[in-house]
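Here comes an entry:

___
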Amino acid sequence: MLLTVRVKPGSKVPSLSGDGGDLVIAVREPAREGRANEAVRKALAAHFDVALSRVQLVRGASARLKVFRVEG
């Protein structure tokens, strides 16, 4: 499945919530060197209870609005 995710890097409190059809994921990691993207991958893998290798960033590596593929 493809998911549109709005990322909030550098947040004090990590969270995952829905916002009008999109997921909003707040992560502590900064938006540098792909650290926030990796944190979002880990959060999605944990949320959907799949292996980390099953979560791939499809589009938006440097944007706050990203598209991930989660294979279940």
